[in-house]
# Entry
Amino acid sequence: MQDLAPLGNVFQAGTLSGNPAAMAAGYSALSILMQKAVYKELQEKADFLLLPLEKALEKTPHSLEKVGSLFSIHFYEKKRQSPHLLPKSKEAFRRFFLHLLSQGIYFSPSPLEAQFISASHTKQHLLQTQEAVLQFIEQEKN
# Structure
């Protein structure tokens, strides 16, 4: 903390910076995350949700990118030749987003944003999401 202004050279600002309630919430969150079981549970949730989606997407030009419990689904018009290509079908993502929203599932509304699985997500949440995504993938094949 000595490195932060006004004592140090690092300027840091934000809406809730230094707010006692925000600091207490942040401390509580970090305390929970220090328990190693949290990350193991997040990985188990990610595997439960994402492995069937990856398998279904193998038969399409689309892809699922993931790291731990962070993931993105990208829609392409044809199989991409390079991992550096950006998704080509914003329209497909729009249909995907609206399909999930109609089922009470809120994903980030941009194809360039990521999704996060949290400790709060239950197996039922993940199953509902998995079923809705698989349904969309199947609809897009037809």
